[in-house]
Specification:
Rossmann fold, binds S-adenosylmethionine, alpha/beta
Length: 305
């Protein structure tokens, strides 16, 4: 089953930034198939307790089995990391987030995430929520669809693709990932190295799972859960997420947000974070050669003060 597991990116960089064993508690808010948690539990950075969260029940099941050996030190929670303040009440030493979806979900779960998949357009990380990619593709008005592809996919041909989707769905419902991929391929003649459907599928996934506002909410709440000196370690895979993390970190590090014209600070803002990574860390050349998909990973680390 090893090949079903997600390749956990930048494991060494996570371990390098954790303190030697003795720490009480870490949280892995994106457990996936457990690769990062396993690396931590097998290392000399193992904490007394690990709390592992994932929104996806199926991934939790896979990870639980994989991490069986360490189960007495692990608490599992099925939930959304944006609700971290409700899910966890204790202060912790580190919080780790590896954003997006896992290759297990992409390749093995038949959940409609992949443009190569002949399954129903779905893309829900939480199988119990209502909104699906199918609903967006088959019912959103043209302009809304076009904006979504532009804002969440940074897709240059957003209007053309949206128009073709609307034209097609007027003939027949667009049911599967392959149906949508065919429509995009016909329309999107941009010659880039990535698959013509990549940006459209990214945009739909972000919209279905409300990923950007979820990330913002998580960042704000997670800082409050860290002990003084505790670390927030976040890995993101596209510029939309990285920009949010960078901006929130900058805001939290600022001691004052008064406009430059104000001579004496009036805002009374408190610094809550020190940024450890002025520039994001990226995977080593060796890691990228082992796993080409890791090339877009960016890690930012903040320390709670
Ligand atoms: C890139 S994978 C993490 C892989 C993991 N680090 C590993 O080594 O296997 C991201 C995981 O985060 C989960 N996830 C995405 N959004 C979430 C959210 N809002 N709350 C909780 N889990 C979420 C996904 O279900 C997925 O399993």
């Amino acid at each position: 089953m090893t090949s079903d597991y997600h390749y956990a990116v930048m494991k060494q960089e996570i371990l390098d930034n954790l303190e030697l064993a003795n720490n009480d508690t870490y949280i892995d808010v994106t457990l996936g198939t457990g690769g990062h948690t396993l690396a931590i539990m097998e290392s000399n950075k193992k904490p007394k307790k690990m709390i592992c969260i994932d929104l996806d029940k199926e991934s939790l099941k896979v990870a639980k089995k994989r991490l069986g050996k360490y189960s007495k030190n692990i608490k599992y929670i099925q939930g959304n990391f944006k609700d971290i303040d409700l899910l966890i009440q204790e202060k912790v030493d580190a919080i780790i987030a590896d954003l997006g979806i896992s290759s297990y979900q992409l390749l093995h779960s038949n959940r409609g995430f992949s443009f190569n998949e002949n399954s129903l357009l779905d893309m829900r990380i939480d199988k119990y929520q209502e909104l699906t990619a199918h609903k967006i593709v088959n019912s959103y008005p043209l302009q809304e669809l076009s904006d979504l592809l532009k804002n969440f996919g940074e897709e240059k041909n957003h209007f053309k693709i949206a128009s073709e989707i609307v034209r097609q769905r007027n003939n027949e419902e667009i049911k599967t990932c392959l149906d949508l991929a065919k429509i995009v391929k016909r329309t999107n003649k941009n010659k880039t190295k990535i698959n013509p459907s990549t940006r459209t599928f990214q945009a739909l996934r972000i919209a279905v799972n409300n990923e950007l506002s979820t990330l913002e909410e998580f960042l704000e709440k997670s800082l409050k859960l860290l002990k003084k000196g505790g670390k927030l370690i976040i890995i993101s895979f596209h510029s939309l997420e990285d920009r949010i993390i960078k901006q929130v970190f900058k805001y939290c590090e600022a001691k004052c947000i008064c406009p430059p014209s104000v001579m004496v600070c009036k805002c009374k803002k408190k610094q809550t974070l020190r940024i450890l990574t002025k520039k994001p860390l990226t995977p080593s050349t060796r890691e990228v050669s082992e796993n080409a998909k890791s090339r877009s990973a960016k890690m930012r680390i903040g320390v709670a003060i």
